Structure formats: C-alpha cells, structure tokens
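Re: that backbone. Tokens:
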C-alpha cells in the first residue's frame, strides 16, 4: 500500500507518493496562472486548479500502479482561498487567493463594529484582507448573484476532495484560516457568520485533520487510473501540514520554509491568546495533530528580494550560473561578504507579513558609504531577510512559543552559507532536511492516519530525515544583536516616511 499527498498551492499543485515507511515513490507537478482582473484582485481559475489536481494525481499514481498502488490520498492546500459552488459541482466564481486584497476597505469598519479584540479572542486571528471573512463580505456586497446562488463555499483542499468524492468537509486548520471559526470551541462561530449574513450550513462541516471525507467516485477513479476504494483525507493548511512533513510537529520545534515567502510554523501544547500576539498579528489556531497549536510568522517578500537582486544587482553571477547550469542563488550567496555587514536592509519590497501587516512596505538599505562594497550589500540582503524572522521569533518567545530547534526546508535551505548566517542571527539550531516536498509528505502521513495505518506523530520522526544541523556561533551573537537592535529602530523610525512615500505613489495608506 502507498500513500499520496497532494499540495494545492498558489502557483501550482503537487502530488507525491510514499510507501508506508516514508520512502519516496513518485511525484508530479503542474503549474497554473494567477489572474489579476483588476487592482487588488488575485485569482485562480477554480476549474483549472481542479483539473490540474486530477492530472498530477493520475500521473503520480500511474507510476506506482503496478508495484504499490495508492490506497489513500491526503489533500492540503493554501489557506484563506475559497470557491463558491453549486450542489452539482458548478463553480460560480474564481478562487480569491491569499494575496487578494480587494476587501481592504471593508476590514477596518467591519472589525471595529464587531469589536477587534472580541474578533481575535474568538478566531485567534487579527483582521486583514487576506482572510476569507472579508473576501466573503466583499462577495456579498459586490457579487450578490454569486452570494445568493452559492450552495457551499469550499476552501481549496475541500474543492479537490469534493471533486473526487462528492462529499463536503474541511479540517480545523483550514476553517481557522477563514477567520469564521471559533478556535477554542473548534466550531464555526455563529456570531461572526451572522455578522456577515452567512448561514453556517453554507460552510463545509469542520472535522479534525486526518479525517476521511469519502471514497473516490467510481467514474473519477476510472478516469484517473485509481483502484477501487481509494480514500480521500482532509489534511489542512499547507504550513502546519508541511511542518509535520519535516518532523517539526512537536512542542518546542518549528518548520522554517525558506522560499519566495519565508514562513515559520511552530508547535506548542498550549492554547495561547495574548495581547502581544494580537498586536503582532500572530495567529493562534489548531495544529494538524491533536493537542497542539500553531501560528505562522512570515515575510511575504523574503525570497522575492533575492530574485530582485539576481535580476538587478547580481547579473554577472546569474549569467555565469546560466552558462554553467548552476543555481544562480548559490553563486550570489557565495559572492557575499564572509563577515557581518555594517549595512542594514529592510526587506519590505512589497507588503510586509507579520508582525506589521503593512500593505505599503518599503525596502531600505541603510548605512551606505563610499567604502561600502558590493559583497557587503549582498551580505546585508541575506541578513535583512533573516532579521525580519528574528523579530517574529522574539515576539513568539516572549508569548510562550519557545523554540529549541527549527527544521529548514525550501530552496534557501540548500545553501550551507546562508543556513549558518541564519543560525547565527536567530540564535536557534537549524536542521536541514532531506525531504523536498514536506507538505506532500505531511499529507501522506495524515492519509495513513485516515486509514488507521499509522500514527503521524510517531511517523514524523521516522519519515523526516535530517541532513545537517547548524548551531549558532557564539562569536557572531553580540555582533548580530547590535545590528538587530538597529534593524528594529530603523523600521519604527520610518513610519511617517512610509506614509509620505505612499502618498507620492498615489496609494491609500490607510
């Protein structure tokens, strides 16, 4: 028997198959295009996403059909995004992705009227246009035809599961990311749903992660080349599912995804709601394993800053890498100074993530002089991206999310140089992992749980194989603490300047 994990992301969908002992068997990936129909809108074609999921499932399953056929499919996905559907499967509108900000103007007045603190105490989240609550409110006001006709509003993992099985449900982690869910009671909040005029019957039933939603319909199974009786399991929000996949779903540990977005997803056995977390926009919601809770601390433009450097400042390294077939980012990192920089970079080349939730972020390189070198600038980029995550970690630690280890995955984790810099700045051991598709692996573990074949809490320590641990170097600790203090002061002191810049660009800062 083999287990499949499916990861429905913003730019593509992946499927990977694993044996019962976690051995990799096959995988498939398919991209789809983001759509930007008007300013602030970021959408995906719902039908295209479902079709892409079908194709990668068929391809990955086909490679093991004759040797170890797939018996269960676990589905995880990006949070917040949803599709309004009819009972016959008709999709009434595109998916509004996490980065869709069309509801920006609705957030402040609605949250203020409801009560911001009450909203946080119920949902564990602070008001922001990324959350489904405000996207649904926008739909009600601007697409009344869709609002009135919709039978259910299904999140991305639910949409795939519905297509495969004809059954509707979601898991606690995905429900929590909607900001319609009472995270303490683990049920839809009737008070919030009533506040936007939504009957909770129009939302999928919320169940624990790892719950079987149904079996693949016969006609779908035949079209995808699946055997009879294949079960579909709801796994959850991609970040905590990925944390499970890299062995970090245990109290005191965290995953650290280092890619286009940098994201830290820790685990704690305490249900923590606090004023400090609320003011820092750091959510608290159920983890995918029972008895655990999590949050997500993220820098939206983390890896995108490196891409900007590649395309604008490090064209020489990029071209040399292209000609040699090497990774351009490895060359860029190697070209950085081998000493902590006297420059400080604010890596906000777009909207910030936590803790600021500033839609008008502005990148800053501070401390330039005639003696500054290109190598020092490159080093400052690597450090600045990491200072932003240290800022989040310091808030989490003060709030009870104390961490003793982090598991690093993603493209950035392939660089030993950058991993050591990060460990020195963060002051926490960083362990790189062999798994390249952590979310798919975590979903496969939860699929095994749905079958009653394994305990994911136990499996994560056996499936997730470490490569190397980078311990913080004491000789750099004091240097980085001083620079980190400057980093925090720099952001705080530029508040009025950011507003002035937004005005110059014609942006509505508020």
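Recovered sequence:
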């Amino acid at each position: 028997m083999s287990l499949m994990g499916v990861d429905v992301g913003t730019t593509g969908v992946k499927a990977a198959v694993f044996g019962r002992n976690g051995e990799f068997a096959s995988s498939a990936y398919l991209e789809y295009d983001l759509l930007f129909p008007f300013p602030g809108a970021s959408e995906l074609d719902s039908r295209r996403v479902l079709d892409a999921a079908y194709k990668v499932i068929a391809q990955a399953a086909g490679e093991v059909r004759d040797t170890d056929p797939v018996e269960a499919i676990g589905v995880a996905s990006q949070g917040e995004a949803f599709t309004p559907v009819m009972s016959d499967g008709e999709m009434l509108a595109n998916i509004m992705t996490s980065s869709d900000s069309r509801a920006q103007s609705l957030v402040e007045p609605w949250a203020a009227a409801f009560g911001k603190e009450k909203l946080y105490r119920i949902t564990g989240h602070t008001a922001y246009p990324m959350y489904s609550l405000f996207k649904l409110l926008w739909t009600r006001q601007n697409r009344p035809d869709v609002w009135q006709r919709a039978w259910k509003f299904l999140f991305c993992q639910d949409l795939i599961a519905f297509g495969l099985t004809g059954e509707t449900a979601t898991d606690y982690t995905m429900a929590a990311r909607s900001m319609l869910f009472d995270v303490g009671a683990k049920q839809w909040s009737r008070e919030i749903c009533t506040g936007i005029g939504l009957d909770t019957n129009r939302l999928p039933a919320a169940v624990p992660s790892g719950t079987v939603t149904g079996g693949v319909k016969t006609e779908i199974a035949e079209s995808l080349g699946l055997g009879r009786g294949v079960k579909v399991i709801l796994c959850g929000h991609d970040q905590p599912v990925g944390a499970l996949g890299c062995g970090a779903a245990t109290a005191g540990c965290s995953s650290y995804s280092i890619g286009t977005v940098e994201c830290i997803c820790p685990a704690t056995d305490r249900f923590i709601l606090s004023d400090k977390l609320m003011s820092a926009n750091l959510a608290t919601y159920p983890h995918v394993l029972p008895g655990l809770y999590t949050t997500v601390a993220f820098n939206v433009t983390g890896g995108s800053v490196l891409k900007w450097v590649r395309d604008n400042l490090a064209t020489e390294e990029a071209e040399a890498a292209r000609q040699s077939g090497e990774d351009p980012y490895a060359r860029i990192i190697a070209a950085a100074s081998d000493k902590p920089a006297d420059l400080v970079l604010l890596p906000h080349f777009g909207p910030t993530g936590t803790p600021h939730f500033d839609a008008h972020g502005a990148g800053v390189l501070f401390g330039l002089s005639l003696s500054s070198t290109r190598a020092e600038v490159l080093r400052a980029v690597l450090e600045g991206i990491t200072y932003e995550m240290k800022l989040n970690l310091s808030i989490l630690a003060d709030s009870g999310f104390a961490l003793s280890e982090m598991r690093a995955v993603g493209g950035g984790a392939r660089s030993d140089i950058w991993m050591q810099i990060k460990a020195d700045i963060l002051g926490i051991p960083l362990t790189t992992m062999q798994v390249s598709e952590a979310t798919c692996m975590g979903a496969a573990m939860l699929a095994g749980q749905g079958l009653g074949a394994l305990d994911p809490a136990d499996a994560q320590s056996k499936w997730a194989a470490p490569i190397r641990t980078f311990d913080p170097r004491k000789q750099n600790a004091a240097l980085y603490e001083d620079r980190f203090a400057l980093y925090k002061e720099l952001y705080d002191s530029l508040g009025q300047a950011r507003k002035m810049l937004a005005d110059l660009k014609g942006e509505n800062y508020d």
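The first helix runs from residue 46 to 62. The two ends are 54 Å apart (CA to CA).
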